Amino acid sequence: MPNQEKSNTNAQLESQAIFALERGWIAVAIEKWTEISHIHEILVDHPKGLGLEGELMEARLLYLAMQQRSDHYFDLAKAVRKWIDEKASASHYSATLLEKLPLALPDSLIIGAEAIDDDHRQLVGRLNQIGESLQEKNGGQIEPLVQSFVGATRAHFTNEEKFLASVGHPGLAGHSHYHDALAVRADELALLVAEMVKGDISRHALFQALANYLFNDPVVADVELRPFFQTA
Ligand SMILES: [Fe+2]
Ligand SMILES: [Fe+2]
Asked: pTM of this prediction?
Protein backbone atom coordinates (compact mmCIF):
# COMPACT_ATOMS: atom_id res chain seq x y z
CA MET A 1 0.00 0.00 0.00
CA PRO A 2 1.50 3.40 -0.92
CA ASN A 3 2.48 5.54 2.07
CA GLN A 4 -0.08 8.26 1.39
CA GLU A 5 -2.89 5.71 1.30
CA LYS A 6 -1.61 4.06 4.47
CA SER A 7 -1.53 7.43 6.21
CA ASN A 8 -5.15 8.12 5.21
CA THR A 9 -6.20 4.70 6.45
CA ASN A 10 -4.51 5.34 9.79
CA ALA A 11 -6.21 8.73 10.13
CA GLN A 12 -9.56 7.08 9.37
CA LEU A 13 -8.94 4.33 11.89
CA GLU A 14 -8.03 6.89 14.53
CA SER A 15 -11.21 8.89 13.95
CA GLN A 16 -13.25 5.66 14.08
CA ALA A 17 -11.55 4.81 17.38
CA ILE A 18 -12.34 8.27 18.80
CA PHE A 19 -15.95 8.01 17.53
CA ALA A 20 -16.35 4.66 19.34
CA LEU A 21 -14.78 6.04 22.53
CA GLU A 22 -17.13 9.00 22.56
CA ARG A 23 -20.00 6.54 22.63
CA GLY A 24 -18.46 4.45 25.39
CA TRP A 25 -17.54 1.50 23.16
CA ILE A 26 -14.11 1.25 24.64
CA ALA A 27 -13.17 -2.28 23.56
CA VAL A 28 -14.10 -1.44 19.94
CA ALA A 29 -12.09 1.78 20.11
CA ILE A 30 -9.00 0.01 21.38
CA GLU A 31 -9.33 -2.65 18.71
CA LYS A 32 -9.49 0.04 15.97
CA TRP A 33 -6.53 1.88 17.38
CA THR A 34 -4.55 -1.36 17.64
CA GLU A 35 -4.91 -1.73 13.85
CA ILE A 36 -3.00 1.53 13.41
CA SER A 37 -0.17 0.71 15.74
CA HIS A 38 0.02 -2.98 14.79
CA ILE A 39 1.10 -3.29 18.36
CA HIS A 40 -0.38 -6.76 18.55
CA GLU A 41 2.53 -7.86 16.35
CA ILE A 42 5.00 -6.56 18.87
CA LEU A 43 3.57 -6.65 22.34
CA VAL A 44 1.78 -9.44 24.05
CA ASP A 45 -1.54 -8.52 25.48
CA HIS A 46 -2.85 -9.26 28.90
CA PRO A 47 -4.34 -12.75 29.17
CA LYS A 48 -7.70 -11.19 30.02
CA GLY A 49 -7.83 -8.82 27.08
CA LEU A 50 -6.32 -5.73 25.59
CA GLY A 51 -4.52 -4.32 28.60
CA LEU A 52 -1.30 -3.17 26.97
CA GLU A 53 -2.96 -1.95 23.80
CA GLY A 54 -5.30 -0.06 26.09
CA GLU A 55 -2.35 1.52 27.83
CA LEU A 56 -0.91 2.69 24.52
CA MET A 57 -4.29 4.08 23.46
CA GLU A 58 -4.46 5.92 26.78
CA ALA A 59 -0.98 7.32 26.14
CA ARG A 60 -2.01 8.39 22.62
CA LEU A 61 -5.09 10.21 23.98
CA LEU A 62 -3.04 11.96 26.64
CA TYR A 63 -0.64 13.00 23.90
CA LEU A 64 -3.53 14.42 21.81
CA ALA A 65 -4.89 16.17 24.93
CA MET A 66 -1.50 17.77 25.49
CA GLN A 67 -0.94 18.67 21.82
CA GLN A 68 -4.36 20.20 21.32
CA ARG A 69 -4.89 21.41 24.90
CA SER A 70 -8.15 19.51 24.88
CA ASP A 71 -10.08 18.39 27.97
CA HIS A 72 -12.15 16.19 25.69
CA TYR A 73 -9.19 13.91 24.91
CA PHE A 74 -8.20 13.99 28.55
CA ASP A 75 -11.68 12.75 29.54
CA LEU A 76 -11.50 9.98 26.93
CA ALA A 77 -8.10 8.94 28.30
CA LYS A 78 -9.62 8.76 31.78
CA ALA A 79 -12.41 6.50 30.44
CA VAL A 80 -9.81 4.18 28.91
CA ARG A 81 -7.86 4.10 32.19
CA LYS A 82 -11.02 3.17 34.11
CA TRP A 83 -11.73 0.39 31.62
CA ILE A 84 -8.19 -0.99 31.93
CA ASP A 85 -8.34 -0.93 35.70
CA GLU A 86 -11.60 -2.83 35.65
CA LYS A 87 -10.48 -5.39 33.08
CA ALA A 88 -6.86 -6.06 33.72
CA SER A 89 -3.89 -5.64 35.93
CA ALA A 90 -1.14 -4.14 33.80
CA SER A 91 1.52 -5.67 36.02
CA HIS A 92 0.62 -9.16 34.85
CA TYR A 93 2.80 -10.15 31.94
CA SER A 94 2.65 -13.05 29.56
CA ALA A 95 5.89 -14.85 28.81
CA THR A 96 5.59 -14.86 25.03
CA LEU A 97 7.26 -11.61 23.91
CA LEU A 98 10.77 -12.98 24.45
CA GLU A 99 9.76 -15.95 22.31
CA LYS A 100 8.95 -13.61 19.40
CA LEU A 101 12.50 -12.44 18.78
CA PRO A 102 13.69 -10.80 16.66
CA LEU A 103 11.14 -7.97 16.90
CA ALA A 104 10.83 -5.72 13.85
CA LEU A 105 9.56 -2.22 13.19
CA PRO A 106 6.13 -2.70 11.54
CA ASP A 107 5.48 -0.99 8.17
CA SER A 108 2.68 1.03 9.77
CA LEU A 109 5.30 2.79 11.92
CA ILE A 110 7.56 3.89 9.06
CA ILE A 111 7.56 7.70 9.14
CA GLY A 112 9.00 8.31 5.68
CA ALA A 113 12.08 10.23 6.87
CA GLU A 114 15.14 8.03 6.57
CA ALA A 115 17.02 9.67 9.46
CA ILE A 116 14.19 8.84 11.87
CA ASP A 117 13.27 5.43 10.48
CA ASP A 118 16.90 4.23 10.54
CA ASP A 119 17.23 5.33 14.15
CA HIS A 120 14.06 3.47 15.11
CA ARG A 121 15.32 0.32 13.38
CA GLN A 122 18.63 0.54 15.21
CA LEU A 123 16.85 0.90 18.55
CA VAL A 124 14.76 -2.17 17.81
CA GLY A 125 18.05 -3.97 17.00
CA ARG A 126 19.41 -3.03 20.43
CA LEU A 127 16.22 -4.25 22.05
CA ASN A 128 16.63 -7.59 20.26
CA GLN A 129 20.19 -7.84 21.55
CA ILE A 130 18.95 -7.37 25.12
CA GLY A 131 16.23 -9.96 24.44
CA GLU A 132 18.84 -12.48 23.27
CA SER A 133 20.89 -11.94 26.42
CA LEU A 134 17.80 -12.35 28.56
CA GLN A 135 16.98 -15.58 26.74
CA GLU A 136 20.48 -16.86 27.53
CA LYS A 137 19.93 -15.74 31.13
CA ASN A 138 23.13 -13.78 30.77
CA GLY A 139 22.42 -11.55 33.78
CA GLY A 140 25.84 -9.83 33.94
CA GLN A 141 25.52 -8.40 30.44
CA ILE A 142 22.04 -6.96 30.91
CA GLU A 143 22.90 -3.90 32.93
CA PRO A 144 25.41 -2.37 30.47
CA LEU A 145 23.20 -3.31 27.52
CA VAL A 146 20.17 -1.60 29.09
CA GLN A 147 22.27 1.42 30.00
CA SER A 148 23.50 1.82 26.46
CA PHE A 149 19.97 1.19 25.10
CA VAL A 150 18.57 3.95 27.32
CA GLY A 151 21.42 6.27 26.28
CA ALA A 152 20.66 5.53 22.63
CA THR A 153 16.96 6.35 23.09
CA ARG A 154 17.86 9.69 24.70
CA ALA A 155 20.22 10.42 21.81
CA HIS A 156 17.43 9.47 19.41
CA PHE A 157 15.04 11.97 20.99
CA THR A 158 17.64 14.73 20.67
CA ASN A 159 18.50 13.79 17.07
CA GLU A 160 14.86 13.57 16.10
CA GLU A 161 14.19 17.03 17.55
CA LYS A 162 17.21 18.50 15.71
CA PHE A 163 16.01 16.91 12.50
CA LEU A 164 12.43 18.19 12.98
CA ALA A 165 13.81 21.68 13.63
CA SER A 166 15.96 21.49 10.49
CA VAL A 167 12.93 20.70 8.29
CA GLY A 168 10.67 23.21 10.09
CA HIS A 169 8.22 20.60 11.37
CA PRO A 170 5.25 22.39 13.03
CA GLY A 171 4.78 19.67 15.67
CA LEU A 172 8.25 20.08 17.21
CA ALA A 173 7.33 21.79 20.50
CA GLY A 174 4.63 19.32 21.58
CA HIS A 175 6.75 16.45 20.37
CA SER A 176 9.73 17.40 22.46
CA HIS A 177 7.53 17.66 25.59
CA TYR A 178 6.54 14.08 24.99
CA HIS A 179 10.18 13.02 24.61
CA ASP A 180 10.94 14.69 27.95
CA ALA A 181 8.15 12.68 29.59
CA LEU A 182 9.54 9.46 28.12
CA ALA A 183 13.08 10.27 29.22
CA VAL A 184 11.85 10.43 32.83
CA ARG A 185 10.50 6.91 32.42
CA ALA A 186 13.92 5.79 31.17
CA ASP A 187 15.32 6.25 34.67
CA GLU A 188 12.78 3.76 36.00
CA LEU A 189 14.07 1.11 33.59
CA ALA A 190 17.47 1.08 35.27
CA LEU A 191 15.70 0.33 38.57
CA LEU A 192 13.83 -2.55 36.93
CA VAL A 193 17.14 -4.16 35.92
CA ALA A 194 18.22 -4.11 39.58
CA GLU A 195 14.89 -5.68 40.53
CA MET A 196 15.36 -8.44 37.96
CA VAL A 197 18.91 -9.16 39.19
CA LYS A 198 17.50 -9.48 42.73
CA GLY A 199 14.80 -11.82 41.41
CA ASP A 200 11.92 -9.48 42.26
CA ILE A 201 10.63 -9.35 38.69
CA SER A 202 11.00 -11.82 35.81
CA ARG A 203 13.15 -11.30 32.72
CA HIS A 204 9.92 -11.38 30.70
CA ALA A 205 8.55 -8.43 32.69
CA LEU A 206 11.77 -6.49 32.20
CA PHE A 207 11.77 -7.11 28.45
CA GLN A 208 8.11 -6.12 28.22
CA ALA A 209 8.81 -2.87 30.04
CA LEU A 210 11.73 -2.09 27.71
CA ALA A 211 9.62 -2.84 24.61
CA ASN A 212 6.74 -0.69 25.90
CA TYR A 213 9.10 2.17 26.57
CA LEU A 214 10.75 1.97 23.14
CA PHE A 215 7.58 1.57 21.09
CA ASN A 216 5.85 4.42 22.89
CA ASP A 217 7.82 6.92 20.83
CA PRO A 218 7.03 5.69 17.29
CA VAL A 219 3.53 4.47 18.20
CA VAL A 220 2.18 7.30 20.30
CA ALA A 221 3.99 10.39 19.09
CA ASP A 222 5.90 9.81 15.85
CA VAL A 223 2.74 8.73 13.97
CA GLU A 224 1.98 12.45 14.06
CA LEU A 225 5.08 13.22 11.99
CA ARG A 226 4.20 11.01 9.06
CA PRO A 227 1.77 13.21 7.03
CA PHE A 228 4.34 16.05 6.93
CA PHE A 229 6.97 13.85 5.30
CA GLN A 230 4.56 12.26 2.88
CA THR A 231 3.39 15.54 1.45
CA ALA A 232 6.82 17.21 1.58
FE1 LIG B 1 11.23 8.57 17.37
FE1 LIG C 1 9.60 11.03 18.70
From this structure: 0.79
